[in-house]
Design goal:
two-stranded antiparallel ribbon; 14 strands; binds ligand QV4; eight-stranded parallel barrel; disordered N terminus; binds calcium ion; alpha/beta; TIM Barrel
Length: 379
């Protein structure tokens, strides 16, 4: 009996590892900060004819709007509510895009920011993408609504209220990531709001989620949330299809939290992949391409069926997040094409290509002063 339950649970988890790409397509592309209207056209004009399986979109929900720096790309990682108007467009434009992409067989995966709301220093007012009023200081977000009762502050034991030590799993989960107000996902009420938000998107036709900042959420809380998600919309997907889940956990080793803790819940981003592939293509440490004969698990990466892989992502392309100097990006365009081609040809993990925008790099003492720059659109 115990064995049977284990198999049943495992099977349920595995369902969320399937990207449900159609027509034998395998890869997805991150259209970072693209507008919904542009993505719809891109699906019809380029992605479907060229065999792309799906698109990871930027967070579609209401976010803070910042002036200093001016409209940074990262304002989209500071939610104000789950209303669906963002820098990429309105709810109607989002719905139209999801429909048109699905109609040409290209799936949509939503970047879901559910660990936190905006930064503690985010101020008070209506500087938000749908114009909803909020107060970061009072932890009041009436258009969800969330109040001060819905945040983790009592659980966090650090002096600053922020994560101070990644060696302590409790603070990584219960304290604030760079001052972002940390949601109490153990509360039934908070889970319900997050589940409603995700289910609304599933019903609109999305095929799954890139879940942001999973290292900062307890696997048990995520399991409770994922378990209440609807099956995919049968207008485009076969009955009983579970949403595809891929979780952002940066695990390069050396921390108490490992990606393994999240394997049963969905796929996990394999950050070792881009870091290692970069050293190989740059020929650092005497790496040679023929050493990659055993590429994949043989290089200490996670099991094939758990991995979501990429050469670079929106963070490490601009010096945020992890991976370090070896990461190959569009700034090294020849190497980048070679590395992406290698990844797409190699049968390991679900592969994701990066497509964003260029900005004016201005490096002072090794740090790009312009790493905040937003997209070249008018909002
Ligand atoms: C700053 C200080 C804080 C201070 C605070 C005071 O750093 O110490 O307490 O001011 O107000 C922005 C700023 C950051 C600022 C913060 C809050 O860059 O300096 O804090 O806002 O105001 C993106 C960006 C972050 C950005 C964040 C929110 O990368 O720079 O922070 O959006 O706008 C870890 C995590 C991993 C994470 C990675 C970047 O384990 O989960 O760091 N990756 C994901 C996303 C990433 C996003 C977030 C998580 C947060 O891929 O794009 O961060 O949603 O490795
Ligand atoms: Ca948290």
């Amino acid at each position: 009996m115990k064995w049977f339950i284990l198999v049943a649970l495992f099977g349920l988890g595995l369902a969320q590892h399937n990207p449900h790409t159609r027509h034998g397509r395998t890869s997805i592309v991150h259209l970072f900060e693209w507008r919904w209207a542009d993505i719809a056209a891109e699906c019809e004009r380029f992605l479907a004819p060229n065999g792309f399986g799906g698109v990871q979109i930027s967070p579609p929900n209401e976010h803070i709007v910042l002036n200093n720096p001016w409209r940074p790309w990262w304002q989209r990682y500071q939610p104000i509510s789950y209303n669906l108007c963002s820098r990429s467009g309105s709810e109607d434009e989002l719905r139209d895009m999801i429909t048109r992409c699905n109609n040409v067989g290209v799936n949509i995966y939503v970047d879901a920011v559910i660990n936190h709301m905006c930064g503690a220093g985010g101020g008070e007012g209506t500087h938000s993408s749908c114009g909803s009023w909020f107060s970061a200081g009072r932890k009041d977000f009436p258009s969800v609504p969330y109040s001060h009762l819905d945040f983790n502050d009592n659980k966090c034991k650090t002096g600053s209220g922020n994560i101070e030590n990644y060696g302590d799993a409790n603070q990584v989960r219960d304290c604030r990531l760079v001052s972002l107000l940390d949601l109490a996902l153990e509360k039934e009420y908070v889970r319900g709001k997050v589940v409603d938000f995700m289910n609304k998107l599933i019903d609109m036709g999305v095929a799954g989620f890139r879940v942001d900042a999973c290292k900062h959420m307890w696997p048990g809380d995520l399991s409770a949330v994922y378990g209440r998600l609807h099956n995919l919309n049968t207008k485009w997907f076969s009955g009983g299809s579970r949403p595809f889940i891929f979780q952002e956990v940066i695990d390069l080793g050396g921390e108490p939290i490992s990606s393994r803790e999240y394997f049963h819940l969905g796929r996990v981003t394999e950050f070792k992949y881009g870091a290692k592939l970069g050293t190989v293509f740059r020929k650092w440490n005497n790496e040679k391409l023929h050493y990659t004969k055993s590429w994949g698990e043989g290089w200490g990466f996670m099991p094939n069926g758990n991995a979501l892989v990429f050469v670079d992502n929106h963070d490490n392309q601009r010096g945020h997040g992890a991976g370090g100097a070896s990461i190959v990006t569009f700034w090294d365009s020849r190497l980048h094409k070679m590395a992406v081609a290698y990844m797409l040809a190699h049968p390991y993990g679900v592969t994701r290509v990066m497509s964003s925008f260029r900005w004016n790099r201005h490096i002072v003492n090794g740090k790009d002063q312009n790493d905040w720059m937003g997209p070249p659109s008018q909002r």
